[in-house]
Amino acid sequence: MGDILFLCHRVxxxxxxxxxxxxxxxxxxxxxxxxxxxxxxxxxxRDMEHKAALARYTASQSIVWRGKSDEAAALEALVRxxxxxxxxxxxxxxxxAVDRLFEHSDIDTIYCFSGQMAQYVPFKxxxxxxMDFCDVDSAKFADYAxxxxxxxxxxxxxxxxxxxxxxxxxxxxxxxxxxxxxxxAELFRRxxxxxxxxxxxxxIDTGHFDxxxxxxxxxxxGPLIVFTGQMDYPPNVxxxxxxxxxxxxxxxxxxxxxxxxxxxxxxxxxVKALASDSVIVTGEVxxxxxxxxxxxxxxxxxxxxxxxxxxxxEAMAMGLPVVATPSAAEGIDHDGTILVxxxxxxxxxxxxxxxxxxxxxxxxxxxxxxRVIARYGWDARLAALDDLVGQGRxxxxxxxxxx
Length: 403
What we know:
The chain is α/β, with parallel strands linked by helices. The protein contains 17 helices and 13 strands. Strands 3-2-1-4-5-6-7 form a seven-stranded parallel sheet, with helices on both faces.
């Protein structure tokens, strides 16, 4: 049985944001089955420092500096009539690394994580090809377009159209197209007409996210409401702005000492500007669990959310009650343990109710953790990959550019 090539759009370590969490745990799982060769991009200088940590799970690593600016990728995409999502990740050095790997290693399976990396898969691969789209990115850009003004609206609509066509082409060549939830998988089936589509849900390390572990308490007075996430990601930025401006004042009308903590790396200037006596903007923290362990309630006020939100699973695993929008709760089999608020008034009412009822809040958090343990262990979620990467043994082939 041959080796696995794991193509990934960014270094999957440390697992401190949604895409890295999924990529790292899949890489870790596959490494228990076969030898895995990682080919990926570095976005930050410190990405190069994680080779030693990843060596435990990889037979080899090729980490290439991406470096292309958003402006250059956009201009190139317009000239070449391609999606910006592809030109942003087009890189000759990475293609060369993939070609060398196929020249000298016995690769019989390609696991491609994120649609941007499918351009490095041959047009007719003889190696087994598994495409993990995660989310339907073309649908995401279509949703962005609805909220934007001209000329950005036109760019988003263009990206949705071109990316949709690209996704359909990739799915037609893959042995299976994977998504993080059945809702995303069904959306892709409807949009693409593809048949070999399935959900492989995200999981959670309930041993790591365990409220019984020892944490450093965060010194914050009053009830603490927490949001965690990558804070330069537009849907997260929109979510915390909405909560801080429209929802939090309604909560503080009943709970005057309540504070909102925005916990996550790379906060934008828009996010930083939300900081006040009632809003904390932490930036990157050493351990997000310290904040989750201190908080009374976790919130996910995302107006645009696709798939399964890791931030929600982490909060549930930590025994926190969660209030989420319908889109943030969608795809999570929470069995009623998540409270859902659709508008600002409803959302505020749900949070305020939890802050008022400490006993009921603790019971809901306990039920949420029990649900996560029963439903979302990583090994159980990823067991479906065994058949996908283990059937037969296709002949290895030298990788070439997909036209």
